[in-house]
């Protein structure tokens, strides 16, 4: 009886070759006019086909993939052209993944759409592609409303600048005496000017009681040179500002309606009063977020209701999509890089990822500069050590970890104050000093100083 010879090293290497994970996989290269689709050669006589971007063609593409037995599809795109195809394929029951174009462009020699879709299909067959994060449909709708609201706010801000420019051209220095020209005092004066009032004393009488400047100072700033062309520009800027104000209110109603459709995690409860941001929606955002998540994210110092809503609209409420908080911070682009070669760290800079949730957390970190909380003390210490840009990123990283922990574990945030943080930091420094002294053969002893008589 003959025994089988032992496998050689070459045979061992071959046995560990890439395995086929997705047998019925397709790859799509997304374009603005045509989509190129590649499927396994065994499933169709024409494994690579092109489809136009019209809805009828997308329907035909989805039916063809389902007919030949495709179960999973991967697509590559750098714009928004993928959205109709993605939704159409999902409606037909296919598992669809969107991959980052930078992850599949590092192989030379593939410069055509046909080769791109074939390469995508081959990589997906062996399970080498990871899909980009896409929240559930309910969160996608919330995200769309939130992004639309941010766009409207940017458009409104440009017309505020046009109002200020027209006032300056008439030498009406309203922005010098009021903190916000769109506040109660500023808009009352501007609307009175457009109605034909020119007397500075009468205009200054619109001063709100909370305004810091007196009526005399305001009246002095309203001596100007009124010209027809500048008044016309001011009138149009105010009309456009009012238009976008109405559109933002309509968007707030759509946001509130979408938030009300989320399932309740806890019963509604009265939360402690907190100062409302001027850019926040007009309804009670905190109550909706608490009902949806079961925790009060605004309890974290620096996290306002508008910031919490931005983060939830981008990430959703289910943190199980990320195994750990490190994965979550890496997805946000707030973790240090790990560019290492030859055992040497070449760079630890964070990746430049255009993540809206990370931008909101960075803005929240910047507001902690004068905070008396533990997070404020952490930001100031990191700023003195690393500089402002890195300190903002580090503090945003800490805020992201807190949000992840609260949403995943349902835990409440407890603010301990900057004194507690400084004491903990001092204990860590002393512990490290003692350890360093023992390594060098010394002993660290505290010197007791006598109190003065």
UniProtKB/TrEMBL annotation:
Residues annotated as domain Transposase IS110-like N-terminal: 26-170
Residue ranges the record marks as coiled coil: 234-261
Keywords: Coiled coil
Transposase IS116/IS110/IS902 C-terminal domain sequence ranges: 297-380
InterPro entries cross-referenced by the UniProt entry: Transp_IS110-like_N (IPR002525), Transpos_IS110 (IPR047650), Transposase_20 (IPR003346)
PANTHER family per the UniProt record, alphabetical: TRANSPOSASE (PTHR33055:SF13), TRANSPOSASE FOR INSERTION SEQUENCE ELEMENT IS1111A (PTHR33055)
Protein's name in the database: IS110 family transposase
Organism field: Endozoicomonas gorgoniicola
